[in-house]
Amino acid sequence: MTQKSGKMDQPVIKVENLGISYETRTGDVEAVKDVTFDIHRGETVGIVGESGCGKSTLAYGMVNYLGRNGKISKGDIIFQGQSLVGRTPEELRQLRGNQISMVYQDPMTSLNPVLRIGEQMTEVLTVHRGMAEKEARKRCEEMLAKVNMPDPARVLERYPHQISGGQQQRVVIAMAMLNNPALLIMDEPTTALDVTVEAAALDLVNNLRRSFDTAILLISHNMGVIARVSDRVGVMYAGELVEMASVKEIFANPRHPYTQGLIRCLPKLGRSKEGSILYPIRGRVPPPANLPPGCLFEPRCDYARDACRQERPALRDLNPVHTTRCLFSEEINADEWTPPPDLVPIIDLNGDKANEVVDTILSVNNLQTYYSHPNSSPLSLIGLGEKEYVKAVDDVSFEVFRGKTLGVVGESGCGKSTLIKTIIGLESKTGGEAEFMGFDIGNRVRERELNLIRELQMVFQNPDSTMNPTYSVGKQIERPLRRFKTVPKEQVRDEVIRLLQAVKLDEFYYDRLPRQLSGGEKQRVGIARALAGRPDLVLCDEPVSALDVSVQAAVINLLLEIQKEFGTTMMFIAHDLSVVRFFSDYIAVMYLGQIAEIGPAEQIYAPPYHPYTEALLSAVPVPDPSAEVKRIRLDGSVPSPLNPPSGCRFHTRCPRRDLLPDGGKICETEVPPWREVGDGHRIFCHIPLEILAQMEPVIHVPEPV
Amino acid sequence: MLVKDYMTRHPIMIGPEKRVVEAQQMMTENRVRHLPVVGDGKKLLGVVNRERLNIPPDKLGSLEVWEITRYLADLTVDKVMLKKGDLQVIAPNATLEEAAELMKQHKLNGLTVVEDDMVVGIITQTDLFIELQELLGATDPGWRVMMRIPARKGEYAKLTTAISDKGWSIMAMGSVRTPKDPDHWDMILKVTDCTKDELMTLLESIEDHQVVDFRETTVYSS
């Protein structure tokens, strides 16, 4: 906190014993209970917790934006010396326009798609401050420049869909800052963004806070994001604030079992599955209508004792800057925790490395997948125009070995998903070869033999949209079994139950419908369905990115166990580099349809690396405030694959070009060579390996003293 | 040292339609003496301070309890505030000296900082004191030396070069014409990286310069 010396400073907002409830048919449901905290000028307070813990309700409640059935049932919110509870809608509207701003997860929900950005932004000033149109426009341009928007004057002329997601979010942040608010509430502001864009957005938040002295409430489920920008952190569980302390204290010395659990289920960047184990938190957040009588976390807690079941613990001060809601905070030590046996995944960590036979299961050579794109010239209307192609996957070659996992990372628009879709046959290739166990898989899925289809299965990102909502879980898993005739008809039910057990779901899930399952359970069903045909290769497209951290840890462990048990080979796409690192044996970094670097996982995360890999690593929010991360930010967004840059495709954004003579002239004209590091590690760059190897590692985590 | 660096941003403000009682409560609870009154878009309309809230007895019809209660219930902030036209305000880009001058001239405790009609902050006497403290490096530990030097060209440089030649740092510095002695200047320096004796020996060796006061400062405030 940057406070000037000797000055009395009242907090900008003070939340006191706040309770928020929703009226439902069965009575009032308290979604937020007894929350107390304050935020000072120029301070960022982060709120973290699983979904369903009441984080967003708190954010909406603070500006009394709860919808028709929501109400503040208890407590008070004092903003700038005035209570916000019981205000008329008109007073609140004024406050929201003048002094409180909000930024939400999806920028498109805050922008009007049919108005130009300029019109929407100037409206803030013309309506609230009665400013003249021209003056307002000038202001907006200045503000866009402050949020590092390239070419602000032109952006004002565009419609929201004409700029990228990261730029949209910057417009929303700029709009929020136009009236110089005293309080900025950000609800998952970077969750919908790419890591590189996220890093830039978080830098921006930090700068704005410094120059405008704004108090910021930042809500996120991502511990890394919280660690990067917050001064203080509050951990919420089932509507209660269970721990609050400075960011360093929370990560170094967590004193509530829930906080400890959250930190334990995060894969640390730079750790592999051999080196560490993720421990998910068992169970799930209790629904607000059905809470345990004692401590709310008691059913999931490893330290639970009788006292915990008797009464609900109150929030108490451990020391003046650290509060917790656990009876035994002094006794529990995160370092002395031993995992209960049922949480330890059955993974043999020291597999027989020596006896392994390297057997290539999938080999891809110069694969190309182009999408044709209508030419903008009028000739194309009568079929004479020259065809343009979006080169989604362009000249990609790699091999996947049996029983191993290949992780694929890159920003969105890099062609990761197209690559997987081409392999599984949902898109047809334009050129090159793909061979799976000796079979050509260049054709589309409907032209393939049933046996081949069975061997290649996929787990999708969003389990909701890939399951038929009217089919029971049993029926979903049965379908591939019947179609592939994996087992005789009369054994289908037993096989389904066996599969359910393999993904740690009980038999009674057989008759459940998808809507009766939680996100993690749905993803398990998705995995069980993919496994039904006993495939040799499972392609996972962001299988855990839609899940909460604790569930994410459980699903990753499950996939690892399955891989161990069935010897399944996997390809794993994820945008979270720490997850990919944790899960994969080999990693391919993709940029604009090409592979920039490929090799064994541990080698990708240490120099020498491709400048693009370096930038990606630097952007990962590390859930450890003491880690030093080199700050490398890429300008702009991924160029259009319709017309990729010449030479090295990364040259337009490469921060390392000046390492080459002539400021990297060669990058613009010539396609870079593959530089072999050894062990199958290849880098696609003009910069010689010796220079790349001299670069400092991006992330430096100090050893605990 | 501009107003915008020392002002308090996002000050507590009040709307014109609020009752005076509420303004009084806000000022007491938040310990402020100066409350800008703003309309939509944080547009400055006026200011209330303690004096404006004192109600002169002749405004009341009688001193009867009911009469007073009714009068207070109807009394809104816009009726008692000092209106914008009669108000001293300052721009965020003004210097602190200008702010001090305004406060001195009009006997004010604080000024509202306004940019394009919009209230962006508030600057009070306390902020000026903080600036003075920081100007003299009060918050950092070191040797606080007060030197009296002749009002001649080059004397100033003589002193600072002597210190910097030794490789010591000058943390802060202020100079003022010696009160009632126009031929001399008083300089206040905050020096670190040396021992007391080293510094004294050096300062006493400079010709015509006189050490008026020498002390070690510890931190005044946290």
Q: Can you summarize this structure?
A:
The complex is a heterodimer of chains A (705) and B (222). Chain A is α/β, with parallel strands linked by helices.
Annotation field: number of helices of chain A? 23
User: What's the assembly state of these chains?
Assistant: heterodimer
SSE succession of chain B = HEHEEHHHEEHEEHEHEEHE
Low-confidence stretches of chain B: none
Strand ordering within the main sheet of chain B: 1-7-6-5
Number of helices of chain B: 9
CATH superfamily of the largest domain in chain B: CBS-domain
Number of DSSP strand runs of chain B: 11
Number of domains of chain B: 2
Assess the beta-strand content of chain B as a share of residues.
Answer: 25-35%
Q: What is the CATH class designation of the largest domain in chain B?
A: Alpha Beta
**What value does the average pLDDT of chain A take?**
84
The largest inter-chain interface, given as chain pair and residues per side, is: A-B, 28 and 30 residues
Distance between the termini of chain A: 25 Å
- Kindly report how far apart the N and C termini of chain B lie: 21 Å
Helices and strands of chain B: which structural class? alpha+beta
Q: Name the overall outline of chain A.
A: globular
The strands making up the biggest β-sheet of chain A line up spatially as 6-7-8-3-9-10-12-11
Strand content of chain A: 15-25%
Q: What kind of sheet is the major sheet of chain A? A: 8 strands, mixed
Itemize the secondary structure elements and their pairings:
The complex is a heterodimer of chains A (705) and B (222).
Chain A: E1 13-24, E2 27-39, E3 44-48, H1 55-62, E4 70-79, E5 82-83, H2 89-98, E6 100-103, H3 107-110, H4 117-129, H5 133-146, H6 152-156, H7 165-177, E7 183-187, H8 195-212, E8 215-219, H9 223-229, E9 232-237, E10 240-246, H10 247-252, H11 257-264, H12 306-310, E11 316-319, E12 322-324, E13 360-373, E14 388-401, E15 405-409, H13 416-424, E16 431-436, E17 439-440, H14 450-455, E18 456-459, H15 473-484, H16 492-502, H17 519-531, E19 537-541, H18 549-566, E20 569-573, H19 577-583, E21 586-591, E22 594-600, H20 601-604, H21 611-619, E23 628-629, H22 665-669, E24 674-678, E25 681-684, H23 689-694, E26 699-700
Parallel strand pairs in A: 3-8, 3-9, 6-7, 7-8, 15-20, 15-21, 18-19, 19-20
Antiparallel strand pairs in A: 1-2, 1-4, 4-5, 9-10, 10-12, 11-12, 13-14, 13-16, 16-17, 21-22, 22-25, 23-26, 24-25
Chain B: H1 3-6, E1 8-9, H2 20-30, E2 34-38, E3 44-49, H3 50-53, H4 65-74, H5 77-80, E4 82-83, E5 89-90, H6 96-106, E6 110-115, E7 118-124, H7 125-135, E8 142-150, H8 155-165, E9 169-177, E10 184-192, H9 196-205, E11 210-217
Parallel strand pairs in B: 5-6
Antiparallel strand pairs in B: 1-7, 2-3, 3-4, 6-7, 8-10, 8-11, 9-10
